[in-house]
Design brief:
6-stranded mixed sheet; 206 residues; two-stranded antiparallel ribbon; 21% strand; globular; Aminopeptidase; 5 helices; alpha/beta
C-alpha cells in the first residue's frame, strides 16, 4: 500500500465551488485501491499553503508519503494538465482569497529557478487519454497558488527521489461557477469524469 497525500484548494474569486476540493473530499470518503490516503484542502492563501505544507511534510528529513498529488482548477482549460515544472516565482501583485499577497518575487529566495515533478507525466497522460479523458503535459503551472504549492513541495522534497510529487490542473465542471456567471466556459465535464480521472491517475501510482 502506498502512502499518498492528495491535496486540493478551496474557493476563490469566481470559482465558488472548486472541483479540486470536491475531488479531494470524495476520495477522503471513498479511499482508493492500493493507497492509504491523506487528504488536505488548502485555503487559497499564501500563508496557509506555507504553514500547512510545513505541518504535513516537516521542514527537513524524510517524509511519510510515497506520493504527493496536488490538484487545482484551471477554469479555462479544456483538458487535464499534468504539470512538469514548478517555477520559483510568484506573479507580482497577485492577491489571494484572504487579501494576502506574496512576500517576495521568489517563492524560496535564492533557490533554484525551477524544479521538476517526478510524477510519471507521460504515463498519466497516456492512461487518461486511453480512458477517454482529455489530458496533456504542461510546462507552466501559472503564477498563482498552484505553482506556489508545487514549487514549495518540490523544494522540500529535494534529496528525496523516492517520493513522487506533482501538480494536476483540473478543468472546471458545471458546479464550479455561480449559475448566473456569464464567463463560464462551454467546456465543463461532469464531476464523475473528474473522479474517474483520479482513479486512473492513482492506478498509475500504485
Amino acid at each position: 500500500m502506498k502512502q499518498t497525500l492528495l491535496t486540493g484548494f478551496g474557493p476563490f474569486g469566481e470559482v465558488v465551488n472548486n472541483p479540486a476540493e470536491r475531488i479531494a473530499r470524495h476520495f477522503e470518503l471513498s479511499g482508493a485501491p492500493g493507497h492509504i490516503l491523506t487528504v488536505r484542502v488548502f485555503p487559497v492563501s499564501y500563508e496557509a499553503v506555507k504553514s500547512g505544507l510545513a505541518a504535513l511534510l516537516g521542514t527537513e528529513g524524510v517524509v511519510q508519503f510515497d506520493n504527493i498529488v496536488m490538484l487545482g482548477v484551471n477554469s479555462r482549460a479544456a483538458e487535464w494538465r499534468i504539470e512538469r515544472i514548478g517555477v520559483n516565482a510568484d506573479e507580482k501583485g497577485k492577491v489571494d482569497a484572504t487579501g494576502g499577497m506574496a512576500q517576495n518575487a521568489e517563492i524560496i529566495p535564492g533557490a533554484s529557478v525551477q524544479l521538476f515533478s517526478n510524477l510519471p507525466v507521460d504515463d498519466i497522460v497516456r492512461d487518461l487519454t486511453a480512458a477517454g479523458i482529455p489530458a496533456a503535459p504542461s510546462d507552466s503551472a501559472g503564477g498563482y497558488l498552484c505553482n506556489h504549492l508545487l514549487y514549495r513541495t518540490l523544494h522540500r522534497l529535494q534529496g528525496l527521489p523516492s517520493v513522487a510529487a506533482g501538480f494536476i490542473h483540473v478543468p472546471c465542471d458545471p458546479e464550479t461557477f455561480a449559475a448566473d456567471d456569464k464567463n463560464k466556459p462551454e467546456f465543463a465535464p461532469a464531476f464523475e469524469q473528474h473522479v474517474r480521472a483520479i482513479e486512473v491517475l492513482l492506478e498509475v501510482l500504485r
